[in-house]
Amino acid sequence: MSDVTLTNPGLGTYRLKEEVAYQAVSTALELGYRTIDTAQMYDNEAAVGKAIADSPVSRDEVFVTTKVWVDQLSRDTFRRSVEQSLARLNMAQVDLLLIHWPAPEGDVPMADYLGELKAAQDDGLTRHIGVSNFTIAQIDEALKILGPGSLLTNQVEIHPYLPNRKLVEHCQQRDILVTGYMPLAVGRVNDDPVLNAIAENKGVKPAQVALAWIKQRGIITIPSSTRREHLQSNLAAMDLELTVSESSRIDTLGYDLRLANPSFAPEWDLD
């Protein structure tokens, strides 16, 4: 069995479709990325799987995540949806299977869909399990159901304008990795005066400063990009070290700008 783990940065593939997704994953693997994130809802699992299969990088070296969408959480549909994801990915097993969002309005009991998630792991469909967009209260409920050490990660929105400090600290204290999506706030970081000033002083790009800030908080980051130069830049950001003063300046930017907030989102924790 592979012992590959989540690595920084990963490649997010939200909104990347078909040939665009294929090329982004192919280029990322060529450049050295080894963590690839997809989901049922992204409608790109087949393209992601083909890019991984066609790459000279061994499947055993790539950490692949997919996620179960909210309309597949019931006991009647969960297992079949995971098997369909694996078929699209052309894989016998993923490295990480996540609940994409907690069940809207609690329509499906958490014990039901987490039980199905654990069964998928026990049956070898995934090496690790985790959750996404879970609040502090939902993390605690999940750990009561599955037990300590059961969840590898909670994947949530993290960027300089949404630091999610309380949730991050809560997860880390329980040995749950935090994976941050939308780390560049859909490009907003590029125009930020504070990030630009730090970047200019260090001879780097503001996006790299944002990614370095997230990494230094002990968070896995999964920026999405299709351009080779941006993929290279995001990878290089992992070698960037920010001073305490620089990090503190970025810490002041947070003002609860939440970009992923659908109507079925849970009641978010406020910092």
How are the secondary structure elements laid out?
Elements: E1 11-12, H1 18-31, E2 35-37, H2 45-54, E3 63-68, H3 78-89, E4 94-99, H4 110-122, E5 126-132, H5 136-146, E6 153-157, H6 165-173, E7 177-181, H7 193-202, H8 206-215, E8 220-221, H9 228-236, H10 244-251
Helix pairs in contact: 1-2, 1-9, 2-3, 4-5, 7-8
Describe the structure.
This protein is α/β, with parallel strands linked by helices and 271 residues long. It has a single domain, classed as NADP-dependent oxidoreductase domain (TIM Barrel, Alpha-Beta Barrel), CATH 3.20.20. Helix content is 39%, strand content 13%. The chain contains ten helices and eight strands. Strands 1-2-3-4-5-6-7-8 form an eight-stranded parallel β-sheet. Helix 1 links the parallel strand 1 and strand 2. Helix 1 (18-31) runs parallel beside helix 2, helix 1 crosses helix 9 (228-236) and helix 4 packs across helix 5. It is globular and about 55 Å long. The model has no long low-confidence stretch (mean pLDDT 97).
